[in-house]
Design brief:
- It contains twelve helices and nine strands.
- Helix content is 39%, strand content 15%.
- The protein is elongated, with a radius of gyration of 31 Å.
- It is of the alpha+beta class.
- It starts with a helix and ends in a 13-residue tail after the last helix.
- Helix 1 packs antiparallel against helix 2 and helix 4 runs parallel beside helix 9.
């Protein structure tokens, strides 16, 4: 029985014992009989014993005089000459070595850490375990821990992925998992990277619904209705969580700093396909350049690593085909709003 359950019994006993003694006293005064008196005595004695056990157990878990069973004593393993203290394997657990690449002093340094993992342990769980148990100076960005916020993007075994969605054992290669910061985003510290350039490129495509009458959205008399077919035109591209994995996987982004990248381009297609948007072909004009859609070499790596199933490569090719068939205005104002 754990300490919290003993504490419940402790508090119950603190209230129950005086109450039972009071009932016993009343029973004795009213002479209700020996049977009632003996049963109440037994109940009071039982609660008293539980109260004592609860006090002892709560005290042992409070830090002073803490008793640790032998089965919970820490074990030691060595990885690359580095000794790590880890708890022994529980049911279905086994040791895994995390080869952690941390950015500092202008370069990435790798250090190995030993952790215990079961089939439910994620890479993010392992990193937090290292941070809490071995090195609290480790910097890692995360938030939701369930593949929604996109904060914990990093390179795992050479492939950009979300740490919270990557199983540690599934990612094992010979008992080792390599973790390092994303490469296309400038590193800040350890596994944390700078997304200011990413956000700047995202803003270039004006990621919002454009209406010719700006005040209409404030005084619209009814909602903007869409058919199911109109919704499906842009919905597949609206699931982007801006994790930046597609940017890190893209070979063009890694070789051409001017390329706007698959994330921004897929979102340009998302708003262009939205029937509520009134920017029309001018939105495609924003990305009609060698640093826009024409810079894409259709490697498809961006779509492969997307954790939400967005297909940036398909979005870019769709815009290319539409641009080739566009009938531009005669005033030459292509790309201007």
């Amino acid at each position: 029985m754990n300490a919290s359950r003993y504490m419940i019994l402790l508090y119950a006993s603190m209230l129950g014992v005086p109450l039972l003694f009071a009932i016993m006293s009343v029973s004795a005064l009213l002479r209700l009989g020996t049977v009632y008196y003996i049963s109440e005595m037994a109940a009071a004695a039982g609660l008293f014993v539980y109260a004592v056990m609860g006090f002892v157990e709560a005290f042992s878990h409070s830090g002073g005089g803490m008793r640790i069973p032998k089965s919970a004593m820490s074990a030691e393993i060595r990885t690359n000459g580095i000794k790590n203290s880890i708890t022994p394997a529980g049911p279905g657990e086994r040791p895994v070595t995390v080869n952690l690449g941390r950015f500092g002093s202008g370069r990435i340094e790798f250090r190995k850490h030993g952790v215990m993992a079961n089939k439910f342990t994620t890479v993010l769980d392992a990193l937090l375990s290292i941070k809490e148990g071995e090195d609290n100076s480790l910097s890692v960005r995360y938030s939701c821990r369930m593949g929604i916020c996109g904060s914990c993007g990093m390179v795992i075994n050479g492939k950009p992925a979300l740490a919270c969605e990557t199983g540690l054992i599934d990612a094992c290669r010979g008992g080792t998992v390599s973790v390092e910061p994303m490469q296309v985003h400038p590193p800040v510290k350890d596994l944390v990277t700078d997304f200011s350039g990413f956000m700047k490129d995202h803003r270039k495509i004006i990621p919002e619904l454009y209406r010719k009458d700006a005040e209409e959205q404030q005084r619209a008399e009814h909602i903007y209705r869409q058919s199911q077919d109109e919704l499906l035109e842009y919905l597949p591209f609206s699931y982007c969580i801006m994790c930046g994995l597609c940017m890190d996987a893209c070979p063009v982004v890694n070789s051409n700093q001017g390329f706007i990248g698959p994330q921004a381009l897929s979102q340009a297609e998302r708003y262009h396909k939205d029937s509520r948007d009134q920017m029309g072909s001018k939105r495609l004009g924003l990305v009609d350049s060698l640093d826009g859609v024409w810079g894409c070499e259709f490697a498809g790596a961006c779509s492969e690593v997307c954790p939400k199933g967005v297909d940036p490569a398909a979005a870019i090719q769709s815009m290319k085909m539409e641009l080739l068939g566009l009938d531009w205005d005669n005033d030459g104002e292509k790309g201007k709003i």
